[in-house]
Automatic annotation (TrEMBL):
Catalytic activity: a ubiquinone + NADH + 5 H(+)(in) = a ubiquinol + NAD(+) + 4 H(+)(out)
EC class name: translocase
GO cellular component term of the entry, any: mitochondrial membrane
Protein name: NADH-ubiquinone oxidoreductase chain 3
Membrane topology classification: Multi-pass membrane protein
Source species: Karstsinnectes anophthalmus
Gene symbol of the encoding locus: ND3
Amino acid sequence: MNLTVTVFMITATLSLALAIVSFWLPQMNPDAEKLSPYECGFDPLGSARLPFSLRFFLVAILFLLFDLEIALLLPLPWGDQLHNPTEALLWAAAVLILLTLGLIYEWAQGGLEWAE
């Protein structure tokens, strides 16, 4: 047999065996103590399933977007070694202008306000 087929067969067999054992091995005996939410040793004061504000997710997504912007602009110092370094500068400026316009739009729409 081919080495690739052998490695695939061993991987598939091991994965299947571990998946089957994982269903038989755990002992699940849920009771009221295990199913109750844990609040630092105190009795729960309310529901543990309170929804988050959508504004929290919006700010988190904006943070990830600007973090991605930094990752996109990271290779910019190496762009001056190209034949036409102004092209790299124009692309970086286009990314910055687009993200700045998006931030201004979110700010104008009130998406960054925590309280209404």
